[in-house]
Fold:
Amino acid sequence: MADYQPAETTFAVDRDCKTLSRHVLEQLQSFSPEAQDLSALMNRIALAGKLIARHLSRAGLMESVLGFTGDTNVQGEAVKKMDLYANNVFISVFKQSGLVCRLASEEMEKPYYIPENCPIGRYTLLYDPIDGSSNIDINLNVGSIFSIRRQQGEDLDQTGADLLQNGRQQLAAGYILYGPSTVLVYSLGQGVHMFTLDPSLGEFILSSENIQVPSHGPTYSVNEGNFWQWEESIRDFTRYVHRHEGYSARYVGALVADFHRILLQGGVFLYPGTVKKPEGKLRLLYETAPLAFLIEQAGGKASTGREAILEVIPQAIHQRTPLIIGSAEDVALVESFIQDHNHRRQRQQ
Ligand code: AHM
Ligand code: MG
Structure:
């Protein structure tokens, strides 16, 4: 076995220690008011991530972290204590920011307003506070997903109608993955960049810049337990994968974690619709559009199977979409199975 050399492994990244706020300003090459706002917003998201990571790291030791609250959310799903905690962390962190007038999350039926911020804070934060929450109680990966949009109009009835626009309106998007280390991945529409939380500094430090997803990768990531409910095109794709060399199945059950693997190593993640629920499970504004923004920035693709995720205009803020996301070639392959089936169906009509 080679000699262990701790000194060399201590710091793999450039100890220039580029922080997130500095990176945002460099990305925008400006100290304009909007650049300052985005830098402050990203700082606040990072603070929320640090608070949630700290809470998760002691989950088994505290009574208020694991398990359910006993309530159900607007989606009809049982709310976990951690969902509630993380949802409130984002609210309290942004209450103090002065920049965000409105937050919308999958845990809240309607957008949450911070009236004192509204005269100045014209940004809306959309987020999934804890993604993959079924993993919490067994100490596996979870994440938080975020997206920033500019508020348009006054939204006097406070329904968030101006949010019903396509994903190309996002100013920034990203996620925090709570794994062996806590990483924050974000894009302002100028590439995808990754930061790793250094707990000794309490700072997210740049660890990888301008990430590009490989054009093809070995991973296919899908809950195959749903095979019986899928349309034939998705079944055909999985049959194709089973019969060809070079594919490997991976499924964490937390979108952020499964997506992170695909972003770094290539491949495709699918959460298709089913015959009964053609819209699938994942929510457009808080999950699929933010990740689509990232994957396009990284040179990959995100599709419903029929159109690009970033083109979908939602009818309601909690709308769901099917998701096929990852390496451009692998997403195109899944789409080709869907198109073949559509053509066959049209010919039969
Ligand atoms: P959540 O945000 O309520 O946790 O739900 C979304 C999660 C995703 O993280 C994951 O990809 C998917 O649900 C897993 O669903 P399933 O258990 O049906 O495979
Ligand atoms: Mg989620």
